Amino acid sequence: MGAFIMPQLSTFLSTRAMLLAAGILFLSGCASQAPPAEAQTATHPEQALIEDLVLANRMLASRELSVLDAFGHVSMRSRTNPNHYFISRYVAPGMVATSDIIENDLESKPVSGARPDEYREVYIHGEIYKARPDVMSIVHSHSPELVAFSVSSIPLRNGDNVVPIFDIRKFKGDGSGLINTPAMGQAMAESLGRSNSILLLGHGVVVTSNSVYSLVSNVNGLRNTARLQQMLISMGGTWDPNPRRVTAQPNTPQTSPAQQTQQAVVPSGTGGGRGGERGWEYWKQLVLKLTDGKVPVSSPPAPAGASSPDDALKQDLAHANRMLASPELGILDAFGHVSVRNPRNPNHYFISRYISAGVVTPNDIIENDLDSQPAAGPRSDEYQEVYMHGEIYKARPDVIAVLHAHTPEIVAFTQSSVTLRPVVNGGAFIGDGLPMFDIRKFDPRETIITSPALGRAVAQALGNRPAVLLKGHGIALTDSSLNGLISRAYNLRVNARIQQQAIALGGKIEYLPQQPALPPAAAGFDRAWEYWKRIIPAN
Ligand SMILES: [Zn+2]
Ligand SMILES: [Zn+2]
């Protein structure tokens, strides 16, 4: 059981943190060549904490841990002022740098004055720190394995405890399913009670700990517990959630408060067998390897823009192709395609020539009219199923981007009597199910959409919905923007995975109602798109 940090102990910690910060200051003071920007940040009294928080963000988003994806966030309570905490501004956890860290009070208001780029769900953090003086660090993630338990009547067991579930729909919100008001945060903190973790129905998980070092291990452990229980249930035997339960009195004396504080002390990097430190040191090495051994101070500047709006759009579309084919998104394999309408000529759209999405460059992009004929004259290297795109743009003036994919998790729902339904906020656009297109009803000799007539039939089956399932084949997915389409495709695949996992648990499933689309956050900044642009190479 983790130790509680009492107020007097946090004074002890703060002294140590200041000594550490002073040490860093001393070192950088010696190096007279140090750039002024670094010297300035090193003077922050909680520099050590800020660097640990950056590392925690990047570790949790790493491929090895993958507890956080483009979404979610992690925070740490101040070591000098228990009424403040630190958290990143609205960027993806995998690209957080020290200049992104904000200091908030427990109302989740930035200490340095209001700013437009806070996470919308920042209240999760402030309200738990208010209610739980023992909590020093908090993470909010949307791990599919944990979301599956959040919508299932089968409880997630953590040793002898059952992880509680917060059902947001019992509380008045804006219908988005987000914890985006102080009142929602407070209600969630009340449901958490004395527990160290809580599932959020159809949404994610919140894990708390007495230090950031054990937090990273604990959330990883809870996700692994969910995976293990999935396996145990699918094997069909009986099982004990806590087979190493200790019933006899331990021989060793109770840990003293002085020993307990050691768990919250900065790991020395020398190992030596105390709790979560070994994991922290390992994951830290993995992420530092990617940034030349230094904790990043700021994100690298975005690459130079294109010379014309058309070139910029072609660049974005080429990059979107590669994102969809990347292991992080896993939407397209060697097949499938994505297109975007030309905003300067709504009767044209852009799409790649006949190559796989993972190798598309801006030079491969063709401009088509809505009959799917190349605007610059006929050519022999168009995708066979290009008509799906043109006919959908014709029928749906609101659609700006179209994806056709054969993602296995989604295809499964086109061949099964089980309806694809929303189980996570990102999949709420599915509503009461997506329409199904069965090509055999139109052309018994054809298996793919190779003619304008079949393209029109797909557009008709789509109607005014965001997507249409193609029986035994794949999906045609639409959105009102290219970056929105990428997130929607990602969320749809995640939803399909979670639904499959929840069904495999064997209990009753709580499906989500259709929710209003989320309003864009932070002045239209799309953190998933910006993140994927950074981590997935454009060429
Ligand atoms: Zn969330
Ligand atoms: Zn296809």
What does this structure look like?
By secondary structure, this protein is of the alpha+beta class. It has a domain at 309-507: L-fuculose-1-phosphate Aldolase (3-Layer(aba) Sandwich). Helix content is 36%, strand content 13%. The chain has 15 helices and 16 strands. It has helices at 7-30, 36-42, 47-61, 123-131, 144-150, 182-192, 212-235, 257-262, 277-289, 309-325, 387-395, 408-415, 452-462, 482-505, 527-535; strands at residues 73-77, 84-88, 101-105, 137-141, 157-158, 161-162, 165-166, 197-200, 204-209, 337-341, 348-352, 365-369, 401-405, 436-437, 467-470, 474-479. The strands form 3 sheets. A 7-stranded mixed β-sheet has the order 3-2-1-4-9-8-7, with helices on both faces. A 7-stranded mixed β-sheet has the order 12-11-10-13-16-15-14, sandwiched between helices. Helix 6 links the parallel strand 7 and strand 8. Helix 5 packs across helix 14 and helix 11 crosses helix 13 (452-462). The relative contact order is 0.11. The model is unreliable at 1-41 and 258-264 (pLDDT under 50). Bound molecules: zinc ion (ZN) (2 copies).
Q: Tell me the total number of β-strands.
A: 16
Tell me the CATH superfamily of the domain at 309-507: Class II aldolase/adducin N-terminal domain
Average pLDDT: 87
CATH architecture of the domain at 309-507: 3-Layer(aba) Sandwich
Structural class category? alpha+beta
**Which compounds are bound in this model?**
zinc ion
Task: Report helical residue fraction.
Answer: 25-40%
